[in-house]
Amino acid sequence: MKLPRFEKSRVLVFGDVMLDRYWHGSTERISAEAPIPVVEIQTVEDRLGGAANVALNVASLGGAAGLVGAVGHDDSARILRDKLSSAGIEDCLVSLSNRSTITKFRIVSRKQQLVRADFESTDALAAQIFLPVIEESLSRYDALVLSDYDKGVLAEPLAAINFALKNNKPTLVDPKFKDFSVYAGATLVKPNQQEFSTAVGGWQSEREMVEKARVMMSNLGFGSMLITRGAEGMTLVQQNSQELHLPARSREVFDVSGAGDTVIATLAAALASGESLTDAVQLCNIAAGIVVTKMGTASVSGPELHLEVAEQRATAKGIMSSEQLVSAVQEAHADGQKVVFTNGCFDILHAGHVEYLTEARQKGDRLIVAINDDEGVKRLKGEGRPINSLERRQTMLSGLEAVDWVVSFAEETPESLLTLLQPDVLVKGGDYSVERVVGADIVASYGGEVSVLKLVDGLSTTSLAEKIKLL
Fold first, then answer.
1. pLDDT by residue (tens digit) across 209-229?
2. Tell me, what CATH number does 423's domain have?
3. Catalytic residues
């Protein structure tokens, strides 16, 4: 995965603008007035929050950002506007005399929040207050982001969505706990797991979650949905495409505040720079893994993301879709690495498999293991197979040191995968000749190598299953 040219991105953000204020200090004693800590304030820090943090994330990546929202005539508005100017964000804010600027005030000691106080106006505001500003400014941008914190600015978002779509501008929505029909027609909607569960009533499996997303997309005209799921990662659901599950990146989570802002900003900036939706989602998953290690509302810079992408390229392993694997193989080849491919059912993982895969890995720098899905195993091995489900087989294989990538296929043979991936070496175990290996002709056609390895005598899933039956 290569980092997009974010300097080409132009994103207009519309939503609930906030100022986040942090008072930092030390705590050494308990108050004599009440059993509470006394914080001796040492520093005061102001940050852009809410929709303003989304715009800041776009700017931090190197893109051009504009911000539409509501502020009052107060000190918080002045500070907020100054910080927008310092960040190079176009100020398209509407000042309202009857509304105060939303301000969230936090007292922090020893990297822990002790108190939070909110000063906010949440009355619903009419779309007509903001629509003229959006109509005037959107021509300078490539995408529109709606950042909804349910503070009243996006009480009537349909007018903005319809205007953007009429002008061929993709519209991405970060929703809140409300009826999602108010976002009808949006290009992409990004709820977190709790927001989506509230909207659809929960689910018992990932398959049911995806199905409910597809029903909602069909009913409300969404182009796609990205469900962020905390420790379970993210799930992208698109019309007429296989869903994409991305695992959360293993990091020490310090603060999840503003992580959703980073995700929607990175997604919008990547799409506006010309990235595909799949690649953009992978980037925002990486960015989310960075921002949760920071305290409070924060942004991710272009250099930070670049370093993380570079590190991921060097270490990325695990279960992948065929689309993800294409990018991984291309990157491996670009780095001069030799890619090895093998396939099988791998129903009950045993010592023979481990030895075979270790030897296969020694044929190159990266090893792909393609496995038949559950229906494919049943067709090959008969009723009662597989013993272990696809998910379990993938998990076991991905845990082996020799294995870099695991991918599944539903066809009778892996020939379509070989055509798509074009590995340098095709490895198969058995007692037959190279010419009899399925896919050997495909690999030979582009100059690849085919290798047949001897299997360990007396070890097979079938023989193990028969022995188990005798116990």
1. 999 999 999 999 999 999 998
2. 3.40.50.620
3. 261
